[in-house]
Design brief:
The complex is a heterodimer.
Chain A: E1 10-12, H1 13-16, E2 22-28, E3 41-48, E4 60-61, E5 73-75, E6 89-94, E7 104-111, H2 114-117, E8 128-133, E9 138-144, H3 145-148, E10 154-163, E11 166-175, H4 179-186
Chain B: E1 4-6, E2 11-13, E3 20-27, E4 36-43, E5 55-56, E6 68-71, E7 83-87, E8 98-105, E9 120-127, E10 132-139, E11 148-157, E12 160-170, H1 174-180, E13 215-218, E14 224-227, E15 237-243, H2 254-258, E16 266-275, E17 280-283, E18 291-292, E19 299-301, E20 314-319, E21 326-337, H3 342-345, E22 348-352, E23 358-362, E24 372-381, E25 384-394, H4 397-403
Parallel strand pairs in B: 1-10, 13-23
Antiparallel strand pairs in B: 2-12, 3-7, 3-9, 4-5, 4-8, 6-7, 8-11, 9-10, 11-12, 14-25, 15-20, 15-22, 16-17, 16-21, 18-19, 19-20, 21-24, 22-23, 24-25
Classes of the chains: A mainly beta, B mainly beta.
Biased composition (Pro residues) (chain B): 191-209
Keywords (chain B): Tellurium resistance
Region (Disordered) (chain B): 185-211
Chain lengths: 192, 416
């Protein structure tokens, strides 16, 4: 049973998941059964410094840059339709490998070309994003995107961040307009 | 209580009550030759009906659990409502998770109609005790090619009933919609096969035979065939032919009316071309851009057939011996005059390659209101001649160009 985190709520990973080293962020949705453009959801991670910006674009892990240089954050690959069971995209974070200057890993979910395709999370069946203890498969938090973020096209799911010697997870759950480009701008990346 | 206006995908909780009404309507309310019906599919968690009885419509007006009733004349006192469903949430069978309210255009695809032909379609959630509207969804119909859609769903969520605006469906009509819900509805005899999103596996390339009258028919969008040339030879003269029917007027008939009397349809055949060296352009009667057969672009239009009366239709000749210089050719037809009604045009395109089976592409998924049809894409696929059925409809040259990323500049022209 996942801990139910309200928006803005946070949990100490070191306390609730003692010895936690590896985290999995899972994004899943059902492939479209009706006619029309596919639903292409994307999970991304931003490895942020203490100024809440990425030091360089290599610290932005997404479908075109699947692994950080240090190997601490890895995306399992782009799914453009949602076909398949369970998590359709995943991002794995190895806390021990995260460089000391990474203060926060922010995780986002966006719909690719939401504006052009006139789509939002509510039109997608069974879309969710969750954070899981990758060693025990225990779910730490989950958001139902189809139900509770129905009119959004992008959201900041949450932030894994350092707090003294501790790792914490803050469930941000904040809808966002402008898609992945706007997310990048917020975290200090220029998008062509 | 304020009315909640839903956009596609949005949902809202329904205040607890013993009965609710979902009224649906469309504008214009009545169009000659257009038949619109509302129906309900009550589905389990897996999205399928428990049995066919849970498909409620004019032919089966009440669900087996007695919770949903079809009301052909809505008692809402709201003039725009056309049909309605009365739902008693407390009576809904425990295994039913969702009550999906759908709207279908009878034979819409055959008749060249879609929800894009209407100015509005809506669903209203009404409290029957007060007559008050609780929530409302106006479907954005502009550009919709679907002829059967799920408009809204009333569903269980954590012990509460909610309503969600959906607005998704199928170009192919009731049959694929019902199939999605696990109900088998016989395809209407005149209904073309439903459009498939995923391309069907292409048939094996035809084996070369000395003489053959066999045709290869590309049935579905995205389906393609690849032809290999014989050793030491080119493909010769490839002819792309488009033929269509000029139907005589039916007295008072639906087709007669929309065709505007006995005025024929003027279909123009043309193509966008792109060579390996990056050079590109258009060949069509408009602007008398006929092309060249022996020099670039190695494609020549064989003249204009303004009425369809010439039995052989219009032809474009492609110099198959120069295929190595050609990258891709998008063959299109454009309705230059008259209402763009493709169903009435009954177009058949044939690709004739010497020594090979003819490849036939039928325009059997006609869309109305859009004058441009991209028929087939001919590509040089590493020396093979690849023909893919497109049958994609557009408003005009510019939209088609954009969709295929051709990158030509378009200005308006006219033909004498």
């Amino acid at each position: 049973m996942a801990i139910s985190l309200s928006k803005g709520g946070n949990v100490s990973l070191s306390k609730s998941e003692p010895g936690l080293k590896r985290i999995l962020i899972g994004l899943g949705w059902d492939a479209r059964s009706t006619d029309g453009a596919d639903f292409d959801l994307d999970a991304s991670a931003f490895m942020l410094g203490s100024n809440h910006k990425v030091p360089n674009e290599k610290a932005f892990i997404f479908y075109n840059n699947l692994k950080s240089i240090d190997g601490s954050v890895e995306h399992t690959g782009d799914n453009k339709t949602g076909s398949g069971d369970g998590d359709d995209e995943a991002i794995k974070v190895d806390l021990d490998l995260l460089p000391a200057d990474v203060q926060t890993v922010a995780v986002t979910v966006t719909i690719h070309d939401a504006e052009g395709r006139k789509q939002n999370f509510g039109q997608v069946k069974n879309a969710f994003i969750r954070i899981v203890n990758d060693e025990t498969d225990k779910e730490i938090a989950r958001y139902d995107l189809s139900e509770d973020y129905s009119t959004e096209t992008a959201m900041i799911f949450g932030e894994i961040y350092r707090h003294n010697e501790d790792w914490k997870f803050r469930a941000v759950g904040q809808g966002y307009s402008g898609g992945l480009a706007a997310m990048c701008a917020q975290y200090g990346i220029d998008v062509a | 209580m304020a009315v909640v206006v839903l956009t596609p995908g949005a949902n809202v909780g329904i205040p607890e009550c013993s009965r609710i009404l979902v009224a649906v309507g469309w504008e214009p309310k009545s169009v000659a030759g257009m038949e619109i019906d509302a129906s309900v599919f009550m589905v389990k968690a897996d999205g399928k009906v428990p049995d066919d009885g849970y498909f409620v419509f004019y032919g089966a007006q009440s669900s087996p659990d007695g919770s949903v009733r079809f009301l052909p004349s809505p008692p809402t006192g709201f003039a725009s409502d056309v049909q309605a469903f009365e739902v008693e949430p407390g009576k809904v069978s425990a295994d039913v998770e969702s009550i999906d309210v759908c709207v279908t255009l009878h034979e819409g695809q055959v008749r060249g109609q879609s929800f894009g032909s209407l100015t509005g379609v809506f669903a209203r959630l009404v409290d029957p005790s007060s007559g008050h509207e609780v929530a409302r969804f106006d479907l954005p119909v502009a550009g919709m090619k679907e002829t059967a859609i799920t408009l809204a769903k009333v569903y269980r969520r954590n012990g509460q009933w909610k309503i969600r605006a959906v607005g998704q469906g199928f170009v192919g009509g009731l049959a694929p919609l019902a199939r999605q819900y696990g109900v088998d509805v016989a395809d209407d005899a005149s209904t073309p096969p439903p459009v498939q999103e995923k391309p069907a596996p292409p048939p094996p390339p035809p084996a070369p035979k000395p003489v053959s009258l066999t045709k290869v028919t590309l049935e579905k969008r995205g389906q393609s065939v690849s032809l290999e040339k014989k050793a030491g030879e080119g493909f010769g003269e490839i002819v792309f032919n488009l033929n269509w029917n000029q139907r005589p007027e039916k007295k008072g008939g639906f087709l007669g009316r929309i065709l505007g009397g006995n005025k024929g349809i003027d279909l123009d055949l043309g193509c966008l071309w792109e060579l390996e060296d990056g050079d590109k352009g258009v060949i069509q009667a408009l602007g008398e851009a006929w092309g060249e057969y022996r020099s670039e672009p190695f494609i020549r239009h064989a003249g204009d057939d303004r009425t369809g009366a010439i039995a052989q239709g219009e032809n474009i000749r492609i110099n198959g011996d120069k295929l190595s210089k050609i990258k891709r050719i998008l063959v299109f037809a454009f309705i230059y005059e008259g209402v763009p009604n493709w169903a009435a045009a009954d177009g058949v395109a044939t690709v004739k390659v010497p020594g090979q089976h003819d490849i036939e592409v039928r325009l059997d998924n006609p869309a109305s209101g859009q004058g441009m049809c991209a028929i087939a894409l001919i590509e040089n696929d590493k020396g093979k001649l690849k023909v893919t059925k497109e049958e994609q409809y557009f408003r005009g040259h510019l939209d088609m160009d954009k969709a295929y990323r051709w990158g030509l500049r378009w200005v308006a022209g006219s033909k004498n």
